[in-house]
Amino acid sequence: MSSEDRAGTTGRPIALKVADADNVATIFADGIARGTVVQVRDRSGAGPLLAARGDIPYGHKIALEDIAPGQTIVKYGESIGVASRAIAAGDYVHVHNLDSMRGRGDLERKEA
Amino acid sequence: MASATPTFYGYPRPDGTFGARNHVAVIPSVTCAGDVAQAVCRQVAGTVCYLHHQGCCQLPPDLERVTDTLISLGRSPNVGAVLIVSLGCEGTDHERMYEELSQTGKPVRRIGIQELGGTAPAIARGIEEARELVIAISAQRRVEAGIENLIMSIKCGASDTTSGMASNCVIGRVADRLVDLGATVVFGETTEFIGGEDLLARRAATPEVARRIYEIVDAMETRAKSVGCDMRRGQPTPGNIAGGLSSIEEKSLGAIVKSGTRPIQGVLDYPETAFGRTGLWIKDTPGREPEILTGMAATGAQLMCFSTGRGAPQGFPSMPVVKICGNPHTYRRMSGDMDVDAGRIIEGAATIDEVADETFDRILRVLSGELTKNEAISYTSSIDIHCLGPVI
Fold first, then answer.
1. Cβ of B241 under 8 Å from any chain A Cβ?
2. B164 and A76 in contact by Cβ < 8 A?
């Protein structure tokens, strides 16, 4: 992050997108609710405006695009799991709609 | 940034290492000797107690692992002298502990509880031995040592999403700088490689190191899966999840940022020291604090950089732990426990490089004697030895 690329300089809450391939961004602001418009910011400092579709707590994630059930959710340019249900751009993304694909002893037990 | 090679003031040890502290370590050879060791430490200034819970009724590989880990803890540059407290019938090899630690050239004493006739006589004798050791090393002086003599360990705990975007980035920059200066940096938390192992394997110095990285991650994940449930809530923890981390993959990808960008030279087993090794190394450890802090101190690390978002307060008996907090709200709430405010990065008030420079300067001061927040408030008893087999 360069000195001119500091968060929070536009007045709008910032949603930080870490890598180009990411389909979620992380919001470091309080009070994000349905209809709150956030400024998406990627590494170059650019990014669109996006309206949240629900409450999103400090430090949690917003979907940058529609994500179908079973589709990979990407942060840091890498998989952080899959969508367990349909996710729309602006939705809050967390354990209620993201399934981890690792350390899943429960899935192996079902297969056995 | 100064062009001269950074230095710190450390206690010179007979084996050529330099300690950031000058403790007398009181080492119970088994959990059953813990109360005597603790009583001695309460009474004698300048002692630290390794109050672990292992050392008997375990399978032979674990007993050897406990013996080896306790020896490595005694070999730490931060330890100036050692008192071994044995029960007398334990599964660990307290004779070997005494012999190997005596070879370091440091003063080493031992007492046996059963041999001395029980708890009270053992405590009395232990106090006398520890008092002599403390006085014997108390006049040692710090001397200037190059930063290449540093073994720095790193860890993140009570993480949230600020960790991977602020505090771990800071530690990563510091780790790169230390590696470039010829120092040794060790990171662990194998559980938190799950989902990020490809990125780590790409940085392996040799194909064999890459193979080892995949091997330790697979072993850790297989152990977790053998219970037959979703690992979530164990890892990531409920606190991680409340902090916005949705899966182990997300936690791992943020966690490995703290290892920086330099090549990974190899994988150390849990009890192994890093003496004589330089560059960036992995130590195979779980993520829980007592076990990884112990494993890292056993590496011979004089200091740990510990990143947190939710606010982990603990240190370690003999290794100063510098807390770097990525979450600005947590820093304001818990500044009494936090050494560096990396939350300013999240708020746009500082850059990663600025906070990394500040952290680097703090590390040099702490190596030279400045207390960390957890040392000052004695929140330093976290210790346990990570074993692989059952207690039987």
1. yes
2. yes
3-state secondary structure B88-105: CCCCCCHHHHHHHHHCCC
* Side-chain half-sphere CA neighbours of B264 within 13 A: 28
Give the integer Cα–Cα distance in Å for B60 and B347.
52
What is the C-alpha to C-alpha distance for residues A65 and A33, in angstroms, rounded to an integer?
Answer: 18
Q: Do domains B23-137 and B148-376 have the same CATH topology?
A: yes
CA distance A91 to chain B (A): 14
The token duo for B107 is 């003063």
Which residues on A lie below 8 Å from B231 (Cβ)?
100, 102-105
B195 — contact with chain A (CB < 8 Å)?
Answer: yes
User: Which pLDDT does position A112 carry in this prediction?
Assistant: 61
**B198 has a pLDDT exceeding 50:** yes
Residues of A in contact with B232 (CB under 8 A): 95, 100, 103
Strands (DSSP E) found in chain B: 7-12, 18-19, 23-28, 47-49, 79-86, 108-112, 143-146, 151-156, 184-187, 264-268, 279-283, 303-308, 321-325, 340-341
Beta-bridged to residue A41, according to DSSP, are A16
Nearest CA to B241 out of A14, A98, A55, A75 is that of A98
Whether residue B236 has a cis bond before it, omega within 30° of 0? yes
Contact A44/B at CB under 8 A? no
Which residue reads 């939710």 in tokens?
A: B310
Whether ipTM tops 0.95, in short, is no
- Give the bridge partners for A15, in sequence order: A27, A40
Domain B23-137: CATH superfamily is: Flavodoxin domain (3.40.50.360)
* Structure confidence by residue, pLDDT tens digits, A39-96: 999 988 889 999 999 999 999 999 999 999 999 999 999 999 999 999 999 999 999 9
Q: What is the pLDDT of residues B349-389, one digit of tens each?
A: 999 999 999 999 999 999 999 999 999 999 999 899 999 99
Q: Which CATH class is domain A3-111?
A: mainly beta
For the domain spanning B148-376, the CATH number is: 3.40.50
